[in-house]
Amino acid sequence: MTLLIRGGTVIDPSRDYERKADLLIERGKVADLGKISARKSWDVLEVPGCLVAPGFVDMHVHLREPGREDKETIASGCRAAVAAGFTGIMCMPNTDPVNDCEAVTRFILEKARKANLAHVYPAGAITKGSRGQQLAEIGEMVKAGAVAITDDGNPVENDQIMRRALEYSRIFNIPVVDHCENRDLAAGGCMNEGSVSTRLGIPGMSRAAEEMDVARDIVLGRITGGRVHIAHLSTRESLRWVRQAKAEGLAVTCEVTPHHFVLTDRDIGDYDTNCKMNPPLREPEDVEALLEGLADGAVDCIATDHAPHTALEKETTFEDAANGIIGMESAIPLAWEYLVRRRGLPHRRLVELFSVNPNRILELGRGTLEPGSIADITVIDPDREITLDVQHWKSKSRNSPFHGWTLHGAPVATLVRGRPVFRRQ
Amino acid sequence: MALSCKNLLGIGDLEVDDVRQIIETAGSFREVFARPIKKLPTLRGRSIINLFYEPSTRTRSSFEFAAKRLGADAINFSVSSSSVAKGESLIDTGLSLQAMSPDIIVIRHQHAGAPHLLARVCLQSHIVNGGDGMHEHPTQALLDLLTITDHKGEPKGRKVAIVGDISRSRVARSNALLLRKMGAEVWICGPPTMIPIDFHQYEVQITFQLEEALKSADVVMLLRVQKERLQDVLYPSVKEYFALFGLNKKKLRRARPDCIVMHPGPINRGVEIDPELADGEYSVILEQVTNGVAVRMAVLYLLLGGELA
């Protein structure tokens, strides 16, 4: 099949390419770029005024399968991903059973193959059962297709084990992704500790809980030479640590979620459980710091921490409610509205945050539109007004604080290996 | 005459006029307590549910008394004896209670915001917060205000010292809000481990020195310090807590000679207060209990429109 994507602006930061151009896809690969006259036998995708970018990757997604298929399955997660403009997603290992061995990794990839939509890149556990005691069989998981390791949600407490994980990961040159949360400091906390937690009477979680572990990981990264990736970084001080590490030339990267750069703890209002997540929503000065980091390169990528939960787990008191929100299907509109439209972020930078950098961190060998490369493509209409409606989302869950928001900028087409897997009408 | 709010979820729901009305009404209801027949027909035919997720003798009985003395039918739902213990969610419980058409639901819950959640489910009833987690306990603050008013008149300009575990205290939050609303000068005192971030937002003074808090105070309000908090490393020992923050007669000399000593109960004698003082001339602790019934009668009555049956 030959497909011409016609009338858009092609952005490929990997080659410093940004201009109005048609893009030709043959046999799943980018064949040509420029002013191209369509032949009769070709399919044509008209995308006037749209942005044509290398496929976006969300490197922080909870797919819940195996174990909690009532919340999300690999198939439903993949449907949500492509509808959200993502051609690839990295799924976290905190399923039941935990993805801590080759068999589970293979299971995930097999399900993803059957779904045949987005690429699924499994993250393996750092330790067996993510219990923080013994290293998991990382080599076997990598051989099966894992692209990173993490004990996301159950972060490795023991500093020596974290050190060993960072050392061991060097064999495979994969990043160690850490959900930074010092358990002693975070104990009992349900939201950011600050003025709002005091007023609401909700047990607070000190920002120090995150910052301590960010600092620890950087220190351990320095002595081990392992690659540290800080998941869902949320505080100003955490970002200061990362900046310092980068200035030193350490292999430290980080991601930020849309909810952490759009919302603050003020948005919890009267105990809105869709504003409960971990790390918690922070304060306005944190949001400001994250926005700066997203613009100037201190933040490497945007990832959603897509965390599906049933209504039952959210329709309860704030303290009892589950942590997390579904994030994929609101990610691009939020980023476009809050970064591009309101802060003037260059389009090219947005593509780096969503595509080039996650590809680089995970070494996926994509994130470019150079002729000959695999045609994973995200098409965005920057002027499209969209009202987010969880009832129409592809995820199995509905837990989003952004329901009903009207934003500008939306994914309108997603192509995986040259095949259109999503088209917004 | 009615309150300006539908529910009483927190002190923020009340305007100053609402507060004055509650205090006045409570004062007049209190006159009934001296009568041999302590029951009014005011809320006859009305029904009030006390939904208690936390063990509580004092507050539950107080609400029950209040409802019954106004002639209302009061039903107690407590966690250990209802379907709640079988895992029913708060929302489902709220919906089934709603189906019985209660006029008022009083809820006490170990989690902040539970009354707000109930209020979103039970739109036909008035919701009264009987204490939610570490958040608020508005009727406690109102009964404290009535007690202060009895002894000190207008609270405006009076110095009130609140001493103890402020972080985990819904009583401290509601009192700080209400006393500031009514113009009192509020001092907060306790070890820094028990004072939450930015308590200054309540426009109160904060000190770690008991002497400073007590100096020329009109009212000293002690909060219960839970001995089980020892594990949380909030203070090293009961002995040291009492030495630094416990109230005795000698320390109280710094306060005004006509000061009153309050405590929401239950008291930990020898932890936050010298036993002698708890029963002594300054103590108004038992008056608080009496006023609790009167204030709750006023709240129930005024929420239901403040009209005689």
What does this structure look like?
- The complex is a heterodimer of chains A (425) and B (309).
- Chain A has 425 residues and is α/β, with parallel strands linked by helices.
- Chain A has 13 helices and 20 strands.
- Chain A has helices at 74-83, 102-115, 138-144, 159-168, 183-186, 195-200, 207-224, 236-247, 258-262, 284-296, 311-314, 328-341, 347-362; strands at residues 2-6, 9-12, 17-20, 22-26, 29-34, 43-46, 51-54, 56-61, 86-91, 119-124, 148-150, 175-178, 191-192, 204-205, 227-230, 252-256, 301-302, 377-387, 406-416, 419-423.
- Chain A has an 8-stranded parallel sheet.
- Helices cover 31% and strands 23% of the residues of chain A.
- The radius of gyration of chain A is 20 Å and the shape is globular.
- Chain B has 309 residues and is of the alpha/beta class.
- The chains are: A alpha/beta (425), B alpha/beta (309).
- The interface between A and B is medium-sized, with 20 and 22 residues.
N-to-C order of helices and strands of chain B: HEHEHEHEHEHEEHEHHEHH
- Unreliable stretches of chain B, pLDDT < 50, 5 or more residues? none
* Content-based structural category of chain A: alpha/beta
Indicate the mean pLDDT of chain A: 97
What structural category arises from helix and sheet content of chain B? alpha/beta
Report Rg of chain B: 19 Å
- Rg result of chain A: 20 Å
Oligomer: heterodimer
Q: What fraction, in percent, of the residue positions of chain B are helical?
A: 25-40%
Q: Which characteristics define this entry?
A:
heterodimer, A: 425 residues, alpha/beta, 8-stranded parallel beta sheet, 6-stranded mixed beta sheet, 13 helices, 31% helix, B: 309 residues, 5-stranded parallel beta sheet, 4-stranded parallel beta sheet, globular
